[in-house]
Amino acid sequence: MFDLSYFFGVFPVIASKLQVTLLLTLTAAVFSIIIGVTIAVIAYYKIRILYPITRFYLSILRGTPLVAQLYFFYYGLARVSEIVLNMKPLTAVALVLSLNTGAFMSESIRGALLSVDSGQKEAAAMMGMSELQTIRRIVLPQAFRVSLPALFNDLINLLKATSLAFMLGVRDIMGQAKSEGAQSFRYFEIYLAVMIIYWLLVLGFSHLHKIMDRKCMEMY
Amino acid sequence: MIEISHLWKSFDGETDILKDINISIQKGEIVAILGSSGTGKSTLLRCLNYLTKPTDGIIRIGSHGIDAKKHSKKEIMELRSHSAMVFQNYNLFKNKTAIENIMEALITVKGKSKREAQEIGLRLLDKVGMLERKDFFPSKLSGGQQQRVGIARALALNPEVLLLDEPTSALDPELVGEVLNTIQKVAEDGATMILVTHEVMFARRIATRILFMAEGTIIADGTPKEILDNPEDERVKRFLDYNLK
Questions:
Q1: Which of A98, A124, B77, B141 matches a 20 to 30 Å C-alpha distance to B172?
Q2: Which residues of A touch B139 (CB under 8 A)?
């Protein structure tokens, strides 16, 4: 039966790996936003040569499972690349998650860029602003607000996807749970704790989204 | 000061919107372009700063001419530096307050310091009667107020010619007056202006010259008195009958 005292004992042990999960999520979030914005801007201007390359990249990253990408990168590329061979599992997971989430975020941002009224660009052009100034100071800030719900969606997916890190041997929340389970076989208590921790994290992110949304609304 | 020669514009290579436009405009002139919808008035105005690229012809503002057939990005920027435009839909930057809208290009394009830009912004907002709302975002302003900020923003660029593209067409009737008054004030300061409008009475009051367009060409060019009081062309007569009723 459900062992309450075991549950309360194992919960903090698993939760102690929160920082690994959060570190992974935040690192990958920063890089995927950078990748996402870059690819979205390339698509927005349909920049020669780069545009077809990014389309191909998107097609691969969105068209294959994340687990396959992790294995292909960490075990597959390690056969041909010294760098990957010597890479820490945590770094490898952060990298693959960045590349993967960046692909999804780029589509969220691209849609938002297209939603910005063309009159905004005309006004900037009329005043002599360069394309770079226009996108950076006018179009992207407006698009950011539009893409906020989609970006938070991507972010929540990213948080949950970090739970695959254990497959490369990273000891995050999921990895810790697995090793606890191997010792005690109390899977019910252990994975209930895992579910609750992830759920609380996602609730936190949703709350953050609401606050940012309200801030944006107050502005304009 | 402005020379337009043999200007053509066609969309999709078939429909000619502008057909061989030739005009020269002197410093200090206030030119109103009148005509029915779809006759190429706005297209002509937008060709003057290449927001719409003409198909053929040369536009000269100031010393440098730009050829529609061959030109560089730099030449377009050069052309744009001589003029400023007020849009039908205001097109204020939605993520910037009233004063930031004015300061934006002063800082990023004209290279002024933040303080200088702010001083200019405050002075111009005062001129258009929007000083009290300097920190409002466009979404918190009425159409008329947005357009007054739009005019201040254009003036901040210190343009040699001010281009106004139907500045009151998107406004509720009760807001038209405040914007027309602002434009009149600017006109009285001696600015060179080209104004596309449907407000015939207003054009008559402030314009020194009227161009009347039909089917992509200028069919009448003269003082308001000549064009509006004794119209010769049948199309001008019909337009006036309809618009002054």
A1: A124
A2: 220
Domain of residue B72, CATH code: 3.40.50.300
Residues of A in contact with B95 (CB under 8 A): 138, 141-142, 145, 219-220
Residue B85 forms contact with A (CB below 8 Å)? yes
- Find out whether B48 and B59 touch, Cβ atoms under 8 Å: yes
Q: How would you label B55-70 residue by residue, b for 16+ Cβ within 10 Å and e otherwise?
A: bebbbbbeeeebebee
- Among A29, A47, A192, CA closest to A110: A47
Give the residue from B116, B131, B158 where a domain finishes: B158
Cβ <8 Å between A220 and B85: no
Do B152 and B182 share a structural domain?
A: no
Q: What is the token pair recorded at B20?
A: 């061989």
How far apart are alpha carbons A64 and A69 in whole angstroms? 7
Q: Please judge whether A126 and B84 are an interchain contact, meaning their C-beta atoms are less than 8 angstroms apart.
A: yes
User: What is the extent of the structural domain holding B21?
Assistant: 2-82+161-244
Tens of pLDDT along B172-201? 888 888 999 899 888 888 889 999 998 898
Residue of chain B nearest A120, judged by CA positions: B91
Model confidence over A95-137: pLDDT tens digits? 999 999 999 999 999 999 999 999 999 999 999 999 999 999 9
Write out pLDDT tens, residues B104-143: 999 999 999 999 999 999 999 999 999 999 999 999 999 9
The whole-angstrom distance between A25's CA and the closest CA on chain B is: 29
The band of B232, judged by pLDDT with boundaries at 50, 70 and 90, is: confident
* Superfamily (CATH) of domain A4-219: MetI-like (1.10.3720.10)
